[in-house]
Write a structure and sequence with these properties.
The structure is a single chain. By secondary structure, the protein is α/β, with parallel strands linked by helices. It is about 30% helix and about 15% strand. The longest helix is centred in the C-terminal third of the chain and has 14 residues, at about 195-205. The radius of gyration is 21 Å and the shape is globular. The mean pLDDT is about 90.
Length: about 220
């Protein structure tokens, strides 16, 4: 998983509340558990005018020109600006995989669904909660300025606008450490590899009958 320290990225606005995980990645794409390849189908039912299917090439599909990610000014966006309760619905981790595979590193919203919020940290995406008033202001600024970008410092826990406005955000220490070091669940466990080995050896020595081979 990529480390996250300070990041500057173009912002794309999704001006809808209660965006659920089925909108982020529709159910027909959930058959794969590879964690990659979901980017072309992110917001599939909003991005395209036809019905998408797994393994279908997206290059020649008819697009919805009105959808934000199909607009040229947002085509390289890496920060998603959203409304309240983003990521609600089912617990599918594929929703975060799709955002990450598309290229998003940050999602900013007034609130998130709990499971989606926690899944973000496990997959290298930083979910930031700011007040609705601040979010309203950011939506207005994004609309007015082409190429609107934000600078996000995880170390300082701040979001900086082009006008140098600085907005602090909160994050748990464990989640912060995970992103700063780029650790997924397996990496987190492997930090304790030697302690695990020591424990297994101690148990084997004190309870050898548990490890007798079956003949």
């Amino acid at each position: 998983m990529k480390q996250f320290k300070t990041f500057c990225g173009l912002v794309a606005p999704i001006d809808r509340a209660n965006v659920d995980t089925d909108a982020i990645i529709p159910k027909q794409f959930l058959k794969s558990i590879k964690r990659t390849g979901f980017g072309p189908n992110l917001f599939d039912e909003w991005r395209y005018l036809d019905h998408g299917e797994p393994e279908q090439k997206c290059d020649n599909r008819p697009i919805n020109a009105d959808f934000v990610l199909n607009q040229k000014r947002y085509s390289r966006a890496e920060i998603l600006l959203a409304r309240e309760n983003f990521g609600c619905g089912s617990s599918r981790e594929h929703a975060v995989w799709a955002l990450e595979d598309y290229g998003f590193r940050v999602v900013i919203a007034p609130s998130f669904a709990d499971i989606f919020y926690n899944n973000c940290f496990k997959n290298g995406i930083l979910p930031i909660i700011l007040t609705s008033e601040i979010i309203d202001g950011l939506f207005k600024e994004v609309e007015l300025e082409v190429g609107y970008s934000l600078v996000v410092s995880l170390e300082a826990q701040t979001v900086k606008t082009p006008a140098k406005d600085l907005y602090p955000f909160s994050i748990g220490e464990g989640e912060k450490e995970r992103l700063l070091k780029g650790l997924d669940d397996i990496d987190m466990t492997m930090q304790y590899e030697q302690k695990i080995r020591n424990y297994e050896e101690a148990v084997r020595a004190s309870h050898p009958w548990l490890f007798d081979e079956v003949r």
